Amino acid sequence: MKNITLAALCAASAVYAGPFETWNGADGAPKVETGLGNETNTYGTWYDYNDNFSGGESKIIYPVDPCHEYSTCAPHYMDSVIEHCEGVCGTANLYRGSSTTKPFSGMGFNIVGEASPTDNTIVAGDASAWGGFCVTYTSDTDISLELGLGDEIDSTMNYANPAVNLPASKTDKKVVVSWSDFKQPSWYEGSVKFDGETAAKQLVGVHFKIQAEPGEYKFRICAVGPKDGTCPEKCGIPSSEQRIKVARGVTTIKTILNERTLRFTGIESATTVEVINSLGQVVMNSVIDKTDAKLNLAPFDAGIYMIRVEGNNVNFAKKIVLK
Fold it and tell me: How far apart, in Å, are the Cα atoms of 260 and each of 76, 286, 289, 293, 303?
């Protein structure tokens, strides 16, 4: 079996190894704690994807609106959906458009995240210690749980990613799969081969792909974790209170805007703060700490801005209005 493991296809990143904490939507956690995220804090955020790049016109319709501008809200893009669904849920509206293949749409999250604050290349991490996955879900049609290996490798093997089929289930269903269960699709005849164990060592993202005949298919992903994780048997069952606090990254941070000075309370250690304008552009990136927890916003025009604070167990975002 031929495997691609070239460094050029798997950009390196400083990774902080830790446990993969089972993500349970009933806990209200905004992101998946993979244990392999790096200093950019861009791992584990839920996103959606579809077949638009190949001429398809599929999309996911959510029961409540997520944030409309991903760049201004990540990692809080899906917060309202997670709160409403106690997971991530919606309707996969599949439409072929000009594509010649079955339409698809799906949800996913990255394992490590971006390479650096100035390089948004999504990089790989070694997830082999997870052993596989546990998943709790419902779906009107089968879901393909796929191992994403990055744009270059995925396209090189014509998106024949190692995958496991999660069968359609109208009722809550928990499944547990091992890396050895992941196989490339039977139709694939290319030379770039990956089994589940090999893919796990250079994993970029985890994808829940819904690909079927044109139509509307409801789904709900309630929990995902490592093979021996604590995925609940049914949706909507929260974890212990302590586990919920860890998952949510509970913080006491608050902001006080006085004219053009923004002060923070509840800052315990050095923390990164971004100021993002209405176009999604980061117009200020600063580090604040307990002794100097304020920002001078005098240089900015009047308008609406997003304040995003990120650090250890901290994911805080708030809109402010400068007059």
Answer: 25, 16, 19, 14, 12
Of 120, 16, 106, nearest to 59 by C-alpha is 106
Percent of the chain with pLDDT strictly greater than 90 = 54
Structural contact between residues 320 and 255, judged by C-beta atoms closer than 8 angstroms: yes
First to last CA, the chain: 63
Residue 28: strand, helix, or coil: coil
* Structural element, H or E, at residue 24: strand 23-24
Contact criterion met (CB below 8 Å) for 212 and 93:
no
Quick one: tokens of 175? 């499944």
Q: Assess contact for 213 and 124: CB atoms under 8 A.
A: no
The full set of domains in the chain, from first to last, is 10-248 (no CATH), 254-322 (2.60.40.3080)
Angle at the Cα of 308 from the Cα atoms of 307 and 314, rounded to 5 degrees: 140
The count of other CB atoms within 10 Å of the CB of residue 268 is 15
Q: How far apart are CA 160 and CA 190, in angstroms?
A: 9
pLDDT tens string 40-50: 778 999 999 99
Give yes or no for a contact between 61 and 91, defined as CB atoms under 8 angstroms apart: yes
